[in-house]
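Cast an eye over my tokenised protein here and flag anything odd:

===
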Amino acid sequence: MIRILFLLILLGMQRPGVQAQEQAHWTYAVKPIGSNRFEVHVTAALQPGWHIYAQHQVDGFSGIPTHIDFTDTLRFSFEGTPREEGHQITEIDPNFGIRLFEYESRVDFVQVVQINPGNTAENLDGLVKYQLCSHTECLQPQTVKFTVALNPLKPALMNQ
């Protein structure tokens, strides 16, 4: 009986991450735009009824804005922060009375990356931290690791 109870508790603890994976599907792609310059596309496809927050929010925001972090900053240069491509929705939070910026259905985060001179890097590693919410609940924040191949002759998508 104790084993069954322990198993149920363990499965219940893992459910938020599993549920987030079911509601958001991430893909990664690379588009060459010049000599050693690339657009890295980090795209979220969301199930109906779910949204993620934009990267930039107003002061007093209590959720987790989407954040994309590239882990190898010595071999690469990054032009600004990722731009957001998608239909951004603005809502007023009924609990706090502040504006929220979010995306439903699909959003593409695009980062321009330059390989620094003298480097022969073929892969770029990164992390996406995000929070999925519906109009009735928010799931635990999730962090997803990814690797993209910058060599156009190799596959452009390498999920971890």
